[in-house]
Amino acid sequence: MTRLLLWIAGLVAAGLLMIYLWAGKDLQAMDAEARAQAPGQFLEVTDGTLHYRVEGPEDGETVVMVHGFSTPSFIFEQNAAALVDAGYRVVRYDHFGRGWSDRPKGPYDDAFYDRELMDLLDGLGLTGPVHLAGLSMGGPIVMNFAGRHPERVSSLFLFVPAGLDVAGTDSGAARLVRVPVIGDWIWHVFGRGILLGDPQYDESALAPEFRLQGDVTRQMDFRGYGPALLSTLRHFPMSDRERLFRTVAEKTDIPVMAVFGDQDATVNITSAAKLIALVPRADVRIIEGGTHGLNYQRHTEVNPILLEWLSPDRAD
């Protein structure tokens, strides 16, 4: 009986391994040939090759846009266009593991994302203070950066920022994928389907100008995308990051603005009240009917708020 159980266990293990290998058989390398398809430019920094784009007049005030968990920097296309039209210098970049950037191994934690942003600014010669715009996971990234390096930040604009109340972060499924080996197998085999099952990616009811201006699936064709996201899930908490917001409030005088959607299924609207309590000087707006993709799906309403915030005539 023992030998039979061992034989069955061996067959199951072999089957699971075959499924794992089959799931990744078509993944490509993110190399020079692949990057030849990308718009923008590349910068060699501490952790690898970082993809970025710079648009707008050289003498314009600089706005650096920091995207979220899974969709790369083209998620800001509509916002960047409005900023450039208004005379701003706009810098966008793909987080490591996403878009056209490298997929380094290791923990994707606070220090990793802080280093990534600092390396970008230093590499582009942006040593003076810049405006930072963070989207979703980009929210706690820029809050962490501002708390650590307030001299490099002139203002913070947050689109539906994570870091406070985020749905599903403590669910059974979320806890399971954080378990070593088991979580790696589940994420490798089913991660793509889980990500594309997000209702945000159903754009069938939206006019083209209110959709993502890029193919979110293309980055998934390259090895390392899934592990990068899984490492982020394991090492970069999306909720209960009150300390980051409190540090900016108490140890800096950096102006803060945030826009939330009251129908956001990812960042709970309760985050708005929490942010106000943590950063009393923050200007917080709520878009009625806004979802997690409001920065582009509702850009005709959000962009005027962003431009008003950045205006030199704004009263702090």
Mean pLDDT: 93
Oligomer: single chain
How far the N terminus sits from the C terminus, by CA atoms, comes to 76 Å
What share of the residues lie within helices? 40-55%
Give the strand order of the largest sheet, numbering strands 1, 2, ... along the chain: 1-2-4-3-5-6-7-8
| Overall 3D shape | globular
Helix/strand/pairing category: alpha/beta
Ranges where pLDDT stays below 50 over 5 or more residues in a row are none
Beta fraction: 5-15%
Taking the sheet with the most strands, its summary is:
8 strands, mixed
Number of helical stretches of at least 4 residues: 12
Radius of gyration: 20 Å
- Topology as H/E string? HHEEEHEHEHEHHHHEHEHH
Please count the beta strands (DSSP E, at least 2 residues each).
8
Describe the structure.
The protein has 316 residues and is of the alpha/beta class. The chain is built from twelve helices and eight strands. An eight-stranded mixed beta sheet has the order 1-2-4-3-5-6-7-8, sandwiched between helices. Helix 4 crosses helix 5. The N and C termini lie far apart (76 Å). The mean pLDDT is 93.
Question: Which key features would you list for this structure?
Answer:
12 helices; eight-stranded mixed beta sheet; 316 residues; 8 strands; alpha/beta
Question: How do the helices and strands line up, and which of them pair or pack?
Answer:
Layout: H1 2-23, H2 32-35, E1 41-45, E2 48-55, E3 62-66, H3 77-85, E4 89-93, H4 110-123, E5 130-135, H5 138-148, E6 153-159, H6 172-177, H7 182-196, H8 225-235, H9 242-251, E7 256-261, H10 270-278, E8 283-287, H11 294-297, H12 299-310
Parallel strand pairs: 3-4, 3-5, 5-6, 6-7, 7-8
Antiparallel strand pairs: 1-2, 2-4
